[in-house]
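Structure in, sequence out. Go:
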């Protein structure tokens, strides 16, 4: 057993020998921080993470709303789906790399790398001369956003017991309660002037906000782990350590699955631009190569990978598998109705830019407000499953209202849209939080960061699949519907590629009404598809395990362990008999 060292306060710390015995360096450092941190440094730590959350929330509340204008300026509004697929897949694949970096080095160094990529993305997007450059910048921004979100989740899981985990995660989302309203004024002024400033200003704001927070995290980390004793000193990384780390995160497998899904999903949004559509050789080649890469990934990970992305101990972890299915279906169904929903409300409702932005942020507002409330319910009952099942039911009701909005002869009612948006936000918040706490509860601390990142990877693949299906429906049906209702094919095409041409039409004009009917018909298909997938998600939540949320960091390293011998139907029976236990 390795020798344990004590800092000036007498707390026991883990030395480098402990790392060599199997505890990742980053995890050992953060455990030392948690074990010895007093209220003074804990307050600094919390404020630093909260400051990062503020910047992240302001970014995601505003920059997302510039995408319709940016793509329309390049006459490529329909490429919103291509952009979303690319950013989802790449942002997801990068998460295991970031998680491994935080384990191999420290949480603070991972934050610094994320900041660098974040700023590069804002600069490239703001200066982009073409749609391709804008997509590249958006990909870097997505990596930054994914990294900040991941590291915040990892640090919260590092520092909090299970019973408070969801509440604290919910509190990290509370900046949205402010930025949601502020963003309306920001977006309205930015799009009136130049959407590029919406990205450019974050190239200044982000480092100004995150650098002090990162410096504080570095200081707390160093103060506890590096005050002159033989503690876990600054990491010494050579080529052999990098090679080992890449093997351990299954980097080759990640690249295979990333390229596979990118090649299989992107044609769904690109085929409408190709000569011959799906018969174009490039589209066929992308699908074939993507399918071959996916098969190669499966074969490699099952039989050849030294450290497969989903090792056997994970495949038999019922909780994690349920989490993967729930998040995959949740994201797939969510993006089917949400990807072009802001475009739908912009055209079908008579709203100003500011009010439209407020409506677009309604779900975000609900997720953050009710996330804290659901977290307190988790804390009170020490359970999560019954609330997650309730959340999926609420989502089904909300999507039913969305379907109803597409059947109204005079256009959708603002009241039904808002009601559906609010209900789905309440339900979605508990679905997300239940999956997060379940996934973190079912693994030991040393596997936690990688588990969070892998769950996010498969969730984003679900999002990519949803976006691809949506893109195919949108690109196939909307142009035809616009021609059907508008009458003139040339005019209909200008409406399809530049949504502002529709928005600037007088409210009540014949072309505006025609476009509203076209959007209603297409969104009816999307809402119905999302409703069906959400029904499957409801079934998956019934099979979820129901750990007791106590004072431990997780639920598997103490006396409480999951019974893997139980059959799937036993979980349904347990839920019906004892929903809170």
């Amino acid at each position: 057993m390795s020798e344990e060292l004590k800092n000036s306060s007498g707390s026991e710390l883990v030395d480098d020998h402990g790392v060599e015995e199997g505890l990742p360096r980053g995890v050992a450092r953060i455990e030392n921080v948690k074990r010895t941190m007093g209220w003074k440094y804990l307050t600094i730590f919390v404020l630093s993470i909260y400051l990062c959350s503020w910047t992240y929330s302001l970014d995601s509340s505003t920059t997302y709303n510039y995408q319709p204008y940016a793509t329309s300026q390049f006459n490529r509004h329909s490429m919103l789906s291509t952009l979303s697929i690319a950013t989802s897949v790449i942002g997801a694949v990068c998460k295991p790399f970031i998680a491994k970096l935080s384990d191999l080095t420290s949480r603070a160094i991972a934050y610094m790398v994320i900041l660098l990529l974040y700023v590069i993305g804002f600069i490239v997007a703001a200066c982009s001369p073409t749609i391709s450059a804008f997509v590249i910048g958006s990909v870097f921004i997505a990596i930054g956003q994914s990294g900040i979100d991941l590291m915040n989740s990892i640090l919260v899981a590092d520092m909090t017991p299970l019973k408070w985990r969801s509440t604290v995660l919910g509190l990290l989302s509370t900046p949205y309660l402010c930025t949601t309203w502020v963003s309306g004024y920001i977006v309205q002024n930015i799009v009136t002037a130049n959407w590029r400033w919406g990205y450019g200003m974050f190239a200044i704001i982000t480092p100004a906000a995150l650098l002090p927070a990162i410096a504080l995290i570095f200081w707390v980390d160093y103060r506890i782990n590096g005050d002159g004793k033989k503690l876990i000193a600054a990491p010494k990384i050579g080529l052999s350590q990098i090679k080992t780390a890449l093997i351990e995160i299954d980097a080759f497998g990640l690249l295979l699955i990333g390229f596979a899904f990118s090649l299989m999903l992107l044609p769904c949004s690109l085929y409408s631009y190709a000569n011959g559509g799906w018969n174009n050789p490039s589209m066929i080649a992308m699908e074939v190569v993507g399918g071959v890469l996916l098969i190669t990934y499966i074969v490699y990970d099952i039989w050849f990978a030294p450290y497969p992305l989903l090792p056997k101990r994970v495949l038999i972890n019922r909780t994690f598998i349920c989490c993967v299915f729930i998040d995959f279906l949740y994201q797939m169904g969510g993006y089917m109705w949400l990807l072009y929903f802001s475009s739908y409300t912009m055209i079908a409702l008579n709203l100003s830019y500011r009010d439209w932005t407020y409506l677009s942020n309604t779900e975000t507002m609900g997720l953050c407000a009710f996330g804290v409330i659901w977290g307190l319910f988790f804390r009170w009952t020490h359970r999560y499953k019954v609330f997650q099942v309730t959340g999926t039911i609420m989502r089904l009701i909300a999507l039913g209202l969305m379907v109803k909005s597409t059947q109204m002869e005079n256009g959708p009612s603002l009241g039904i849209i808002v009601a559906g948006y609010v209900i789905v936000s309440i339900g979605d918040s508990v679905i997300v939080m239940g999956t997060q706490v379940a996934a973190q509860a079912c693994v030991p601390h040393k596997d936690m960061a990688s588990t969070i990142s892998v769950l996010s990877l498969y969730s984003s693949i679900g999002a990519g699949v949803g976006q691809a299906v949506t893109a195919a429906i949108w690109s196939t049906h909307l142009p035809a519907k616009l021609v059907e209702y508008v009458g003139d094919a040339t005019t209909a095409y200008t409406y399809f590629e530049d949504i502002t041409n529709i928005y600037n039409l007088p409210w009540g004009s014949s072309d505006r009404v025609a476009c509203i009917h076209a959007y209603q018909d297409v969104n009816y298909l999307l809402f119905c598809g999302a409703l069906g997938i959400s029904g499957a998600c409801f079934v998956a939540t019934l099979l979820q395990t129901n750990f007791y949320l106590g004072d431990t960091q997780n639920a598997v390293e103490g006396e409480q362990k999951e019974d893997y011998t139980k059959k799937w139907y036993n979980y349904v029976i347990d839920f019906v008999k004892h929903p809170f236990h």
